[in-house]
Amino acid sequence: MPYAMEDGIPFRTTDPIDPPDLEREVHPLLQKRRRPYTSDEQEQLDQVGPLESLPHHLLPQDTCRPVWQSPIFYYGWELNEEKILQFAKMDGLEVRVQHTWLKSEVPKDIPPEDITPDEHHPENWVSVWSFSRYHTIVNVFATYVKELDIKGRGPSWPIRVVMSPKGTTHIIAFYTNYTTDKAPSSRDLDMLSWAMDEFGMGGELKWWLCATDWDWREPGSRWPDL
Question: Which superkingdom heads the taxonomic lineage of this protein's source (predicted)?
Fold first, then answer.
């Protein structure tokens, strides 16, 4: 991946979207089409893999005539979840969340100090504090966003499930092929990506096919949000 230097910080120089006049070979399953995928094609989609640059025909077509719209692609990077959790533990960024349990269903391995009577129904319910893998990952990511003064959605950038040759994969999604609303600037995104790479917590920024909304959308269907 090429870099350019600015104020001593390396910035990625790749453009994530192909220009309209660029023609290049695209996987047959990702070529423009006017029908949903068959069951056999669905099984093959996992093997397509993420795209470094998005072909222009996979952008939504804003036209008056009805056309089939492309599947949802997220722009982001695969999460190295175990590495992120290691940094969270070292830096005191682990997050615990509170859940309500029936007294009779509380696991025996939960320490008593993590259990308190429920405020409204203390006779049957208790509140249990426990480690949250998801919230810890978000907290680590949000901390870096704040330290680097990154603008945009910040902590609300979602974790999404996408397709990959390894099966389903979790990524941080910055925007989609349908919307760039509140996306970080190119400079901020490059800086954050470089920082995450340096700590081994994030991979290459790529376009990933959504694992739950991977089919071509019929004409007139609602455009999805991030």
Answer: Eukaryota
Tell me the β-bridge partners of 74: 176, 208
Query: Is residue 72 a contact partner of residue 222, using CB atoms and an 8 Å limit?
Result: no
pLDDT string in tens for the chain (226-residue length): 444 444 444 444 445 777 777 777 788 999 988 888 998 998 898 888 899 888 888 888 766 677 888 999 998 888 888 888 888 999 999 999 988 888 888 888 888 888 888 888 888 899 888 898 888 988 887 787 777 776 655 555 677 888 888 888 888 888 888 877 667 777 777 777 777 776 676 667 889 999 988 999 888 777 776 6
Write down the residue that tokens 């959790």 correspond to. 85
Taking CA atoms, 32 is separated from 28, 52, 129, 189, in Å, by 9, 18, 49, 29
- Alpha-carbon distance 184 to 163, whole Å? 24
Which secondary structure element, helix H or strand E, spans residue 170, and what is its range?
strand 167-176
Q: How far apart are CA 82 and CA 225, in angstroms?
A: 29
Identify any residues that bridge with 12 across adjacent strands, giving them in sequence order: 3
Alpha carbon distance 68, 4 (integer Å):
38
